[in-house]
Amino acid sequence: MAQITLIEAVTQALAYEMKHDDSVVVLGEDVGVNGGVFRATQGLQEKYGELRVIDTPLDETTIAGLTVGLAVQGMKPVAEAQFEGFIYPMMEQIACHAARMRNRTRGRLTVPAVWRAPWGGGIRAPEHHSEANEHLFTNIPGLRVVLPSSPARAYGLLLAAIRDPDPVIFFEPKRIYRQYKEEVPDDGEALPLDVCFVLRDGTDVTLVTWGAQVKESLEAADELAKQGISAEVIDVATLTPLDFDTIAESVQKTGRCVIVHEAPKTAGFGAEIAARIAEECLYDLLAPVERVTGPDTHIPLFRLEMKYLPSVERIVDAAKRTLAAS
């Protein structure tokens, strides 16, 4: 079995669904002839034609509206925003129509659509190409927000997102698009949505994270282990609906929690997780919850970009503070 990268896993999942379901179509800027800005859709138009892999005008509002229209008429569109920062013009259609359609029509119509977007920093991109604003979508009822962190989870979660009868925002951490490979069988097996993945068992502190920061969190757990500290690592994967039970079970075991994300700290999704822990696990805590995040500012250009993102050192320091406080 060949080993593939995360971006190749995305392509593999799209190709599998298009082969087995004629209602799946892909649309977006340059997704056809060029195969997308990161080549996620490379080769799909040659295989499935211009009617199923559609190069659209440079107009995110139109892409989003067309996606809603296709979905309510029985298709399963997968739309691409070239970068997460380009998704803002799509929000009116996503929030006001896609997310509300099931409720508005009392279940008569649904929107089985996926909006894909390369997400996050770390690739030396210019302004509006490095945002991590997943929290803007977690506050919209009716949406699923999914963030894979490995090739296998990208493949399985994208299959599940396309098959879901309701709209899904699928953010792809572009910093790790080609960072490493793993074996991913092209067997059409979806992974469950709305489930956190426990990637490493531990007893002293819980590290909760998602997207590209899973890599740093696992490396931080390795570093903590060298110092005799056992860290459990949880990949949230589906932010909304949140599988809080898995997080709560871990916090009840370890008594300590560090939440890691690259979005700004204020009102980031980590704040919601911290609030839930305070509401439901307060008496299990041995120390205050720590958050390791991006600062409350725009992500800088490349000279300072990696200083903005959570680092292994910052995660380790936060974990050690939770042990020192107890």
Automatic annotation (TrEMBL):
Ranges for domain Transketolase-like pyrimidine-binding: 4-179
**Which molecular function GO terms apply here?**
oxidoreductase activity
Alphabetized Pfam families for the sequence:
Transket_pyr, Transketolase_C
| Cofactor needs | thiamine diphosphate
Keyword Oxidoreductase annotated: yes
Q: What keyword terms does UniProt attach to this protein?
A: Oxidoreductase, Pyruvate, Thiamine pyrophosphate
Q: Does the keyword Oxidoreductase apply?
A: yes
Spell out the InterPro entries in the cross-references: THDP-binding, Transketo_C/PFOR_II, Transketolase-like_Pyr-bd, Transketolase_C
Function of this protein?
A: The branched-chain alpha-keto dehydrogenase complex catalyzes the overall conversion of alpha-keto acids to acyl-CoA and CO(2). It contains multiple copies of three enzymatic components: branched-chain alpha-keto acid decarboxylase (E1), lipoamide acyltransferase (E2) and lipoamide dehydrogenase (E3).
Q: What's the protein called, per UniProt?
A: 2-oxoisovalerate dehydrogenase subunit beta
Q: Which organism is it from?
A: Rhodanobacter glycinis
